[in-house]
Specification:
Blueprint: E1 13-16, E2 28-31, E3 39-41, H1 58-61, E4 62-69, E5 78-79, H2 81-85, E6 96-100, E7 118-119, H3 121-129, E8 134-137, H4 156-163, E9 167-170, E10 182-189, E11 197-205
Parallel strand pairs: 4-6, 5-7, 6-8, 8-9
Antiparallel strand pairs: 1-2, 3-9, 3-11, 4-10, 10-11
Helix pairs in contact: 3-4
The chain binds zinc ion.
Length: 208
């Protein structure tokens, strides 16, 4: 399972504890981080004292979402407001926006964590000012991968979104299977007490 390589993100470990032949039941121990695989970021991830995943409202996580598509998006592409407006001219009725780059085609490869397409600062501000409450993507982050701790500009768009109460859903997969612009999103994190995020099962309900 995908986990960003950093000392603060543990690798996933799954081990069998109970065994049918011995304990008469099967059980497992699971070790994972709050940002493992498809997951949701709560404000507390980057905002000291920010709200936590157990406090994230289900209203933000479940409901109508709009899918913006950049199929087979090339690495390093910066997505601007005008790119999004071509598909979504009016934000007034949209609370949740999901971005498809088909970046999950690199799931499990080194490329997944390299040069992913990212949002411009203007695009992030436009979404926030437009009243969007949830932004999802099939990349590791909305931020420019060149903006990192080493560059002294660590995750500015994460901070901007989370400070403004926008829930982030990252590492989405199989968005190419959603054929409609609009669908019902169900994004359910584990209710981890004081959690800064949680692996999540995220599904699209599509009326065909
Ligand atoms: Zn995260």
């Amino acid at each position: 399972m995908l986990t960003f390589i950093a000392p603060w993100h543990p690798m996933v470990e799954i081990s069998i504890m109970g065994r049918h032949g011995l304990e008469g039941r099967e059980t497992r121990k699971i070790v994972f981080g709050t940002h493992t695989g498809t997951h949701i970021d709560a404000p507390a991830h980057f905002v000291p004292g920010g709200s936590t995943i157990d406090e994230t409202s289900l209203d933000a996580l479940v409901g109508k979402a709009f899918l913006v598509r950049f199929p087979q998006c090339l690495p390093k592409r910066k997505i601007n407001i005008r790119d999004v407006k071509k598909q979504l001219p009016d934000l007034s009725k949209v609370k949740r926006v999901i971005f498809r780059f088909d970046w999950s085609r690199f799931w499990g490869q080194e490329q997944f964590y390299k040069d992913w397409p990212f949002f411009s600062l203007e695009l992030a501000s436009w979404l926030i000012e437009g009243g969007v409450t949830l932004v999802g993507m099939d990349t590791p982050s909305p931020d420019n991968p060149m903006d990192d701790r080493a560059s002294g500009n660590d995750s500015p768009l994460h901070k901007l979104f989370l400070k403004n109460g926008v829930t982030l859903v990252e590492y989405l997969a199989r968005l190419d299977e959603v054929k409609t612009d609009s669908f019902d999103l169900v994004a359910l994190p584990l209710k981890i007490k004081q959690g800064d995020g949680s692996p999540s099962r995220v599904i699209a309900l599509v009326n065909e």
